[in-house]
Amino acid sequence: MRDYVGSGRPVIRVEDVSKAFRIPEEQMHTLKERALHPLRRTGYNTFKALEGISFEVKEGEFYGIVGRNGSGKSTLLKCLAGIYSADRGRIWITGRMSPFIELGVGFNPDLAARDNVVLNGIMLGLSPREARARYEHVIEFAELEDFQELKLKNYSSGMHVRLAFSVAIQVDADVLLIDEVLAVGDASFQQKCFDVFNRLRDEGRTIVLVTHDMGAVARFCHRALLLEHGDMVVEGDPDDVANHYLELNFNRDAPAPQPVGAQWSGSGAARIADAWCEDGDGSQPTMFRQGDPLRFCARVEFVDAVEDPALSVAFQNEDKVTALVANTAAEIERSGRFAAGEQAVFSIDFENLLAPGRYLVIATLSRLGRGLELIDRSDGEVTLIVKGTTAQGGVVDLPVHSTIERSPSYERRGVEVSS
Fold first, then answer.
1. Residue 259 lies in a domain
2. CATH code, domain carrying 166
């Protein structure tokens, strides 16, 4: 989270805002249906999109709004933009506002880029002269120099996003409302958008961002709000809000990932009677924080005498990718002899470097000898949920140390080049 350096003067104030939509139980789509049934009354169901939403956004603050699909994020942003009127409550916004909410809104598909840029700039508050003067900057940022004369109906969705975002940031608005449509852009354009976010925040602009990217929330936002089914769940520190979002997202009733690979049949000399995960304090929470100590434990009951058993554990993510494998034999090759009727708890400790998400834990009990003798296997009895906001895109997030050394000159292939 970045430190807030704004004036502290509220520029957005939302008080007890509620919004609901009426959904007809039966729809008449044609004039013939209306003529044949002129007296038919259509019943309606009420869908609550927002209920009792209240918050403030201060001048120069980067404010995030997060939530699962259908939680009311986009409805709230449209109420802020004036597209929807609230059924109850009040909204105050101070200063010029630039909304970037839906792909293609305000664009005429039968016009080329220049006409659309000028028209959108005027609608967002620029004078015709200002809109024309900024056209080259808009096209350059959107990287659409080769498509200026092409009608927008022939643009791809990514080209639409680049053009719309480029227009929005050229308006010099005091308040920017940005929906998650930025996810349509490619990786390089998203990085350009993030660079713009940094610049606008440094300039003291106020930004309200709706997103599913918890990394962006933790990286940019000063504060954040989590919505669920139209209600406020939590508001405040972005890391806390992101963790609550992950808890809602991964604790939903969803099937755990299923293991892939061959079906094993063990010797039955012992069985894994119980398995669980612990944190550093020995407790068994429902979610484990990224970077904290983690211990996997398995209680084994021996049916027959077994010499030198070893426990292996694999963590498999929702994409069925094995993210981590560990084996007790790496440290304890000769675990000893266990008699029939004896019990033992095997445990493996490690720092939790798994990326945020849900994992299936697959435990295998075997005996090392001339080959690998499988004794028992536990598939899917333990699932693990990791929460965190520092996902880098891999299956694990390793702690790294980075350095940047600035040098007045360097040599490349024997040629000295001065900076």
1. no
2. 3.40.50.300
| Residue 153 and residue 109 in contact, taking contact as beta carbons nearer than 8 Å | yes
Is residue 260 in some structural domain?
no
**Strand order, beta sheet including 309-317:** 288-289, 372-387, 357-368, 309-317, 322-327
The answer on 154 and 302 residing in a single domain is: no
Q: Are strands 270-279 and 322-327 parallel, antiparallel or unpaired?
A: unpaired
In a domain, residue 419? The reply is: no
What integer pLDDT is reported at residue 258 of this predicted model? Answer: 44
Same-domain check for residues 313 and 356: yes
Distance CA 18, CA 75 (A): 10
**Partners of residue 126 on adjacent β-strands:** none
Cα angle vertex 83, ends 78, 84, to 5°? 75
Q: What does the pLDDT average to over 360-385?
A: 80
Sequence-distant (6+) residues with CB within 8 A of 76 are 17, 19, 50, 53, 65, 227
Bridge-based pairing state of the strands 322-327 and 309-317: antiparallel
Burial class (CB in 10 A: 0-12, 13-18, 19+), 34: exposed
| Separation between Cα atoms, residue 373 and residue 369, nearest integer Å | 7
Domain that holds residue 98: 10-31+45-250
- List the Cα angle 390/230/90 in 5-degree steps: 110
Please give the structure tokens belonging to residue 115. 């006409």
Say whether both 212 and 300 belong to one domain. no
pLDDT at position 208: 92
In a 3-state reduction of DSSP, which class is residue 137?
helix
The rounded distance, in Å, linking the Cα atoms of 225 and 238 is 8
Instruction: Say if residue 265's pLDDT is above 80.
Output: no
